[in-house]
## 1
Amino acid sequence: MINVFQPSLGEAELAALSEVFASNWLGHGPRTRAFEAQFADHIGAEADSLLFLNSGTAGLFLATELLELGPGDEVVLPSVFFVAAANAIAATGARPVFCDVEPHGLNPTAEHIERALTPRTKAVMVLHYGGDPGDIARIAALCTERGVTLVEDAACAVASTADGRACGTFGDIAVWSFDAMKVLVTGDGGMLYVRDPDLARRARVLAYHGLERSSGFAGARVSARWWELDVQGFGRRVIGNDLTAALGTVQLGRLPESIDRRRAVAETYDELLAGAEGIRVPPPLAAGHTTSYYFYWVQMDPLIRDRVAASLLEQDVYTTFRYPPLHRVPIYEAGDTELPGTDEAADSTLLLPIHQALGDAETRKVAEALRAAVAEHRESAGI
């Protein structure tokens, strides 16, 4: 099976894990702090503003806690978004308000965001679809103008930039995901960025049981009774550990070559699908933008999209659509929500395999199978 996503792991990752084993310290420790510092350097931020967590989802939930969301508050986000974001908002009692996206690029514009703002809007969340920064600079400016907190879910955008600035640093809070299917993988894991130093310190406390001071070995150097607890607020344990951080450090080092390979796959698709009747490839990047090439998507007539996906699966080519619109999910469904761009994109879009382990022959197989399937089903549908 040719997978949509697939991690790339090797001897360097094994060696890093062996070093952690040999140290006999598996939990949150020096390798975790080193990974935070290295990732901070990668995005051009201060190390103290970053916190390695056990998942990107934990970062989203932590972000909503930092914002102190509650009943009566609203958070605007595109409907094309992973469900974890809406869950994190709704869990606080606040209301997710879904905005539309541009149907070809699947990112919202500043105008889409602005139309969804109300006096109850406390924050805006954006997702850089497939790694494309989208309209992030204008959205950030809009949020600043309106006094609304901007949260970036940069799960797709680990190496994406807009005018030389890393995605994730435009907002007040940002989250990256390093799960097993991302560009940079740690098995499970995520990174939280908090611009405000006081809020960043608060995030560290909330991420480890609400403890203002460690009650373990580290606390022995600052407290006569280091085993006693100093808890000023409720928290949970969502911190990362040295095992997964060791993987992340190696993966971060190989990130440039991973992006280069993904770019090559995307360019091959562009070339092989150019001029194919009934197939629309992703839009070109805006000037000054770079992408992480997390998704490569094609669009076709909604009448044949599902049949094309089934035909490719029969040939061991797995495709999918991320992310199913949240305004159609039963728990969030709103009958009066009209998002035509989102609906158009959701019914016509298919993600093709793209990852750094995808070979040239596999890339050609996918493109050729897609062209043939689209042609076949267009003919049978009389399109």
## 2
Amino acid sequence: MVAMTLLDPRARAAALRFWSGPVEPVALKGGITNANFEVRDRGERYFVRIGDDIPVHGVMRFAELAASRAAHAAGLAPEVLHHEPGATVFRFIEGRTLTPELVRPRPMLERILPLIQRCHRELQHHLRGPVLMFWPFHIFRDYAASLKDARSPRLPELPALLAKADDLERRLGAIDLVFGHNDLLCGNFIDDGRRLWLIDYDYAGYSSCLFDLGNLCSNNDVAPADEEWLLGAYFERPVTDELRQRYQAMKCASLLRETMWSMIAESFSTLDFDYRAYTEDYRSRFEQAYRSLKRY
């Protein structure tokens, strides 16, 4: 038998005070900043997230907990049933996790858009305690400093990336501040057959609405015609050239953020995930989008 320590995520999940007796957590796939488990207890199913603060990524679990509770109150996310340092227990949602192929069709985007709008317009009214700001351009600068501290082999790439980040920030201009999810990967949507759920609030915080819109489309390869529809439907007005350009700048920023996030993970993460391949994929997509922006 392998000895279990406090650092063993499965052991931490099993040891929570919430359980009525011994439990057997079953590992679930999907988490790349935390470990996820399904636990059965009292005849019920529970979803357990195990993860400590990750300051280098700006992940602070107190803020994630506050956003998760507010998201449930706003009708977006499952209920938080229990919390201990480094662990949160949610009501289990039985459903299908979306894929990029499921996100892209217009009918699914029409279902997703109200969740984003509710997150931006209603979630903040349920928040309690301190919350964070998610500003991608600060994140780029901080990531670069952390990569320098870690003597990352990515250092020669940083000056050009930061110059492009500065250009994107200038192009974006003034923003409308909303409380955003800021991590709209397909795996953060669950379809239970009746409705959609928006989960995982690790990076939630005040940001530009354009980040979530660009993040959703860049992560899931949404077609340009559907991006145009999404912008018009979100703002409830015709899309102008000025809005298109600001949106495209933030979409590029979303791709750059995912690229540099993965560069950081290459140096700091202990999870079993091919971060190098993830970096190369998003770096290529960012450079392509940035070249297109220069011609926009």
## 3
Amino acid sequence: MPPRSSPTARQVRLGVELRKMREAAGMPAREAGALLGGGQPQISHIESGRYGISEERLRRLAAFYSCSDSALIDALAAMTHEQRGEGWWEAYRGVLPAPMLDLAELEHHATGLRTIQITDIPGLFQTEEYARAVFGSTIPALPPAELDARVALRMQRQATLRRDGAPRYEAVIHEAALRMRFGGRRVALTQLEHLREQSDRPGVSVRVIPFSSQEYAGASRAMLYAVGPVPALDTVQIEAAHGVSFLDADAHLRRYRSTFETLASSALSEHESRDLIHAIAQEL
């Protein structure tokens, strides 16, 4: 089977975790490759996500590396059974940028989601009209077909919060995002009403950082923190001018956990946040 030309972020993550495991054991790639009978190139392809790996071979490698973290091994073993093409987001492959599909897959497999948003309402809370206005403001303008596809993907992603066993979703939103009028007054008003309704759902927490907060300065990056089945498989997704990044290094995870906790501590309570959302809607 030829190597994958474009592995998904999750396929890459499986390989990254195997590389971390091997390096922690101080094991050269050539020795790991010899265990599987394919040599160093095979291990390199597996660790880059370009080759898949069976559960049996993964467990052989974990034992060879003397890894005693059974919860991590079980979580990685479960990932080996995931096949590209099975997720609903695959219908958009070749239509939308791969990172957008990787985000949908990340949310689907998360056991918890924490987001910080500065200028936009979180995507999982957006109405269709609001999402269309946000994507419609992209420079340069998107082709109509891609605009429609981006909106459709965002709407389908919201099913993550409606399914059985949905991850807990904690959103910290700056007041600036509530006052942005994407799409005009009617669209903004409908969006605020929808956000307030979503904040009442079980398993959902919406908290607002008010303009009056004294502790917010300097921490202005939007982010999504996806909680994995074990802490080692947590992932951070951030957006920047150059595109989307998925981070999983221990230092990054610690940093963004701390960032979320710091900003959440400066936010209003859930009840106070709902009241502020209502007050802002009345001002429109």
